[in-house]
Design a protein that fits this description.
It contains two helices and twelve strands; from the N terminus they run E-E-E-E-E-E-H-E-E-E-E-H-E-E. It is mainly beta and 175 residues long. The strands form three sheets. The protein has a five-stranded mixed beta sheet. It is globular and about 35 Å long.
Length: 175
């Protein structure tokens, strides 16, 4: 698979490890934009997270317009939110959305970014994006784009009753 127009290489968290990989000087990551999905580009990103990892000055996480609209609906129902990028098992490597504080994070997690979600009536709502430290070690070379698609995702994520699911698409970080 070739790089997109912005030089990024598409990947999907939880991709099939038997599929081709792209190598870098520090390791390899699966390359698979996902079934029927175009490779993500920076143009998909309408809300970029502020960097929260010490020593970094670039965003690692962004949200599409569809994801922002769903987060606004969820904030209206549940108050402030948080995301934790699941590592797999029963929830299939999904970005899981919870009311802020409902998923306990600790030393085994990395806070990858922070956004202030704009609200339709004005104002904002805080949102942090987390990933397990072990998973982050593998995905440290990627920029994550959180999108929203039709379908049922992880049973514990707040968007599930709406017949929607958040989906992580990623691309390799470029120098």
């Amino acid at each position: 698979m070739t790089a997109g127009p912005d030089g990024a290489r598409p990947t999907t968290l939880g991709a099939d490890p038997s599929r081709p990989t792209t190598s870098s000087s520090e390791g390899a990551a699966p390359v698979d934009p996902g079934p029927g999905l175009p490779p993500p580009t920076s143009a998909d990103d309408v809300l970029e997270a502020e960097p929260t990892i010490e020593g970094e000055d670039f965003s690692r996480v962004a949200f599409t317009q569809a994801a922002v609209a769903q987060m606004q609906r969820l904030i209206d129902r549940n108050g402030p939110l948080m995301f934790h990028q699941s590592g797999g098992c029963c929830d299939g490597s999904s970005p899981m959305c919870f009311p802020e504080g409902d998923f306990i994070t600790g030393d085994a997690d990395v806070r990858m970014g922070h956004v202030e979600v704009p609200l339709p009536g004005g104002g904002t709502s805080p949102l942090d994006f987390w990933m397990s430290r072990e998973q982050f070690a593998y995905w440290r070379h990627t920029h994550l784009t959180i999108d929203l698609v039709d379908g049922r995702g992880g049973g514990f994520s707040l968007e599930t009753p709406d017949g929607k699911r958040f989906l992580t698409r990623s691309r390799m970080l470029t120098d």
